Amino acid sequence: MRMARAGARIVAVALVLTWSPCVWADDEDAAALRDESAGEMAPLDDTHADMDLDPGTHGGHRDDDGDGDGDAPAENLEPVRNGVQVQGTLGLSDCTGGFCSNGDESRVANSRIGLGLALSGWYRLIPMVSAGIDVHYNLLGLADRGLVSSSASYWAVEVGGRFHPLQRGRIEPFAGLSFGYLAYAISSDFTELRYTQNEATNSVFFAISAGAEYYLAPRMSLGGVLKVSLPIWIKQCFETLGAEDCDAVGDMLQIQKDALPSAFWYLGGTFSYHLGG
Predict the structure, then answer these.
(1) DSSP state, 55?
(2) With contact defined as beta carbons under 8 Å apart, do 87 and 120 qualify?
(3) Which domains does the chain have, with CATH numbers?
(4) Exposure string (b/e) for 143-178, b if CB count within 10 Å is 16 or more?
(5) What is the pLDDT of residues 206-257, one digit of tens each?
């Protein structure tokens, strides 16, 4: 009996000694495999170090409004203020003075507000100052009196400058000063006498203006302008039945001088395209 027990113990010890090296070998192989795998895997920090993980950016542009499409750089949204600007104007105009307020009863009564348009081009010399040229045409309404039917108009071309005090934001006010040439014409149709008399008076003038523009887009703006032109009359000509008679305004009677407009005003809306430069 004792011999059987001793034999069983010997067999058990032999089995333990045989199985233990296999376990140790398996553990060593697993550790080696883990080390090898760790060596082949690149660290996450090194692989993605150059990625922009800011959820507010897309493709290098920041999405400030959160719509996911990625906004353009802020500088591209700034109004274009430098270089060339082309401006069109449509508005109302009238004159002031003895003729404009009371009229000449022999020909016409008082003037009425008319429609005018202008086209101008400007170049920004420095951020706060621009220079340009303006061409303007305006029809004035004249109230008829008796058997006389009359119409009036004037056109002007001028050069001048504008001062732009603000250089930030979408709203840009300005003030202007200009000098130019103006031609004022009246056509009177004497229906009873069956003839027409044309009157043309020329002047140089100074004008002051003020207005503002609002940028709808970097290159487009809408605005308004008020301009007052002060003429210095030079010559007046009458044409009747094909005969023309001209006189220097300085040689005319005072009552004739007083009948000429002392100023023209114009109030209009503007649309501008900014070409830049």
Answers:
(1) T
(2) yes
(3) 82-276 (2.40.160.70)
(4) eebeebbbbbbbebebebbbebeeeeeeebebebeb
(5) 999 999 999 999 999 999 999 999 999 999 887 776 777 888 888 888 887 8
